[in-house]
Every structure is written in C-alpha cells, then in structure tokens.
Specification:
ten-stranded antiparallel β-sheet, disordered C terminus, disordered N terminus, globular, mainly beta
C-alpha cells in the first residue's frame, strides 16, 4: 500500500473509530471549489477495531478534499459491516457516498441498499451512518423488507446491524392475522381486522 493510500486509509478509519460532536450534515460539492489532494480508483479500504475488522469499503473512485475535510466516494460504493466479534452482519451498496472528517459520519446516496445477514433489506435514496450513535438513519422514503413483511415509510432509525429498527412514518397495509396478537389494552374490546392500515 502506498504512503498516500495509507494516509487516506487512516483518515477514513477515524470516521469509524472516533467520537465527535453533533453538527449539521455536510453540504455542497467540494469538487466545485477545490481540487482533491488524493484520488484513488478501484480502492478497497479495511477498517479495524483492535485486531478485528469492523468495515471493508470498496469504491470505484475516492477523492479526499482537505480544505473542506470531505471524502467523496463514487462509481459504485460497497461496504461490508462487521460486529464487535469480527463477524459479518450487513452489506451496503450505493451509487456514491460522502464522509465528513470532522463528524466522522458517512452519507450513502443513490439507489442505497442495506442488507443484513439476518434477512432484512432496506431500500432508500439516502442513508446516513451516524458515528456517534453507530446508527443508520434516513429522512427520506424507505422500504424495509423482512422475512414476513414489507413496510414503506418516511424516516428510518436503526442500529448499524439492522437488528433494532423503526420507521418513523410507516404507510401501507398488513394482511397478518392481528386477532392473534396480544391486545394493547385488555380493558377494551379488540376491533383489529385482517387489513388494518399501519397508520
């Protein structure tokens, strides 16, 4: 690995490993106002926590802009996420991504797909990985497919492994037999039907 690639890998590692304060998401296109200090094609970067990998990132092109402390990834982005034991948990695909070296966050953009090894698949136009909370979030339209349901909505929040998630404004219908579910309030009669709206 060349010196410049090592420097970029170390910079990218910081966004996964460091703590940071909450601030506004990065905006603007640094490529319009400054030239990249480093540029790589067909790059693969492995991130470690201790001696175990916690992420492997691949991109067709990676550009680092020092003035704006931004790294742009495009031409196809693929990231594999591993848990604390070094076991693979989630794979993410996106058209492009952007990291802010101050926030240590990453925003994946365009045809974003996150698929967990346990069977959940999330589709969106944009997902944000929050380094501070190690959560995946979206403020846009999302579609989550599990082994039993497909749920659409706006807004999403999950741990980075898609184990504990919630859709903030769910829409759609379920065809599950909700009469077998435990009633929320046992003092009232359950009037749930088979085609209850999720709203």
């Amino acid at each position: 690995m060349s010196y410049s690639r090592t420097v970029l890998a170390a910079a990218c590692l910081l966004f996964l490993a460091g703590c940071t304060k909450i601030s506004a998401p990065p905006t603007g296109d640094p490529a319009k106002t400054e030239a990249p200090q480093q540029e790589f094609y067909g790059a693969t970067i492995t991130f470690y926590q201790g001696d175990k990998p916690n992420g492997i990132l691949q991109a067709g092109r990676i550009r680092k802009f020092e003035k704006s402390a931004t790294i742009l990834l495009d031409s196809g982005v693929v990231m594999d996420v591993y848990n604390e034991q070094g076991q693979h948990t989630t794979k993410l695909w996106a058209d492009s991504a952007r990291t802010d070296e101050n926030r240590k966050d990453m925003i994946a953009m365009g045809h974003v797909i996150a698929k967990s090894d346990s069977g959940e698949t999330l589709l969106s136009d944009q997902l944000r990985w929050d380094n501070r909370t190690r959560h995946i979030r979206s403020d846009t339209q999302v579609k989550l497919m599990t082994k039993t349901d497909t749920i659409n909505g706006v807004g999403f929040d999950s741990d980075e492994h898609l184990k504990n998630w919630r859709i903030l404004q769910p829409t759609g219908r379920t065809f599950r037999d909700l009469s077998k579910a435990v009633p929320r309030d046992t003092t009232q009669r359950d009037t749930t039907s088979r085609e209850d709206s999720l709203r």
